[in-house]
Fold each of these.
Amino acid sequence: MSVLPKKNELGFFEIRLESIGGLGANLAGKMLAEAGVLGLGLSGSNFSSYGSEKKGSPVKSFIRFCDPDTAIRDHSPIEEPHVVGVFHEALYKTIDVVSGLRADGIVLVNSSRDFDVIKKDLNLEYGTLAIVDALNIAVEEKTKVNTAMLGALFRICEFLDPNSMREVIRKTFEKKYPHLVEPNIRTFDRGYNEVQFKTYEVPEGAEGKTFVRMQPLLGYETQELGGVITAQANSILKDLSGSRQGFLPEFNREKCIDCAACDNVCPDFCFVWEEGEDKRGRKQMFLKGIDYQYCKGCLKCVEACPTNALTDLREMIGYAEANRVKQNFPYTAGGIL
């Protein structure tokens, strides 16, 4: 039986996974707990928290481990984890992913960027930062990000046995998807071997991050009289960039024939058009660019484009902001046409 390296006052070693729907954090939490409980004889529990169960929406998965003789009577969300796994870097924009992290805690991030840059983005002062390029591994092995993240988590949690996880992967996929067993084991092994660490010294007496529970904007003290919802019933003001799972469309104006096939399949307001004249002087609408605020990275436009004017590109930090062509919605902004 494994020995837990750290415990909180209730005797638990706690892990919190921060992700968005579609990256498999919910399944990863289940498999992680199963490997510890059934494979190693630990007591453990797993559950997830999410709003609408759809691709791109925020998801949290919680895993607790404790000694076999410790009863688990706490089923509340994990607020002070020993380990945090961040499946998607865009979560930094809207969620404090390291909220409540202990001073000597470990943060695992799916990224290809430098340690110090990520540390600054996370507002992390001390502790251990682990980085694994789970997206690149998943693309090369034609699997999902969650299996590579599991491999890195097993490297972090040394009390867990990687062989027990490989057996869980086999049992999970061999009946319905036998062709995915070996690619997922390779993905797990690469995540385990390719994760990198950097420790920032923890000062004596340092305290962990303060946990802040998100509060709704409207409550019984702040809502309008009569419960009136004053927000407009549209998504024009929303930033959907956090839904992207690592890829976005890249636009090449020179190859574009302005056929609007991309706009026909786009589920949002991504494509920006402007009026102009063709070579014969006839009025026509020309595609100006992409408003990445509304792009969820579904890449339907790439599939529909007949000229390869749109191609899929692995998203780099700052690319969307630098290449965004803004939509003009004057009525929403209070102006006139």
Amino acid sequence: MSSLNPEIFSKASEQVNAIRTEINKAVIGQESVVDQVLMTLLASGHVLIEGVPGLGKTLLVRALAACFGCKFGRIQFTPDLMPSDVTGHAIYDMKSEEFKIRRGPAFTNLLLADEINRAPAKTQAALLEVMQEKQITIEGRPLPLQPPFMVLATQNPIEQEGTYPLPEAELDRFMLKVSIDYPSLEAEKNLVSLVTTNKLSDVLDVSELQQVVSPEGVIQLQKVTAQVDVDDQVLDYAIRIIHATRAWQGLNHGAGPRGGIALIRVARARALLRGQHFVTPDDVKTVAPAALRHRLGLAAELEIEGLSVEEVLKNLLDSVAAPRS
């Protein structure tokens, strides 16, 4: 039996689906991506979104911010971006003769790190503390962020000139890596129709989206998500998947403990999204690709053969026996 109050759970499920409905009004044809970003928010994590330009990555973040009326910050990562441009810095005030803290754009609720792989490792590393500890240290002074806080980073998988690979330590801090693809023919037709009818801009407007929940309400939703039941057999299944990645032939390295934590937390969020107060093995298997694809290293011989992490991960998941009810 679930320890969750049925009324609280029912209200949380309704709010989550209301947020999903509102976002899908602006982000056309990307229902799966919207669900994965929502699951990351509910699980109090961060998400890396990979896709070619023009598929609505920035729009998705703006729509999410509009739905719970939070502060939204955007950083355009470039080769000359400095760490202090992300976190902030101390400046000397001539009048007071004291140093004052000037807070950077990372002091927000939703932070869009646009084209994160265009900045060098030193600048990318400025996000390590804020993503893990949800605080920023300036001149030795730790400054906590106002919850809820979430980083949504984007990168272009095709254009590699002038980019820097993300360090494994930073990749591991992203709960999910989401691939955003081109919309279907029908969805793209609806998108083009919406954007070109009586509009001067080529971007969909998010100002008409309704605020569904407050920032405090999002924190409550995250607390409800953390209480979704996980049976011992389902937990064992998730950990066996993680251990399989470490012994799988063709992988240089598997997922660390953060991979298992992410798997269970996102599976809980998926259960809430489906209106269920318990996690099933299918929840775990469904979220596993997004939770693990950025945590695995493919061996050189498999890359030469043209195999991808996705294919290896699919074979691995099929080989791990799921518990039967």
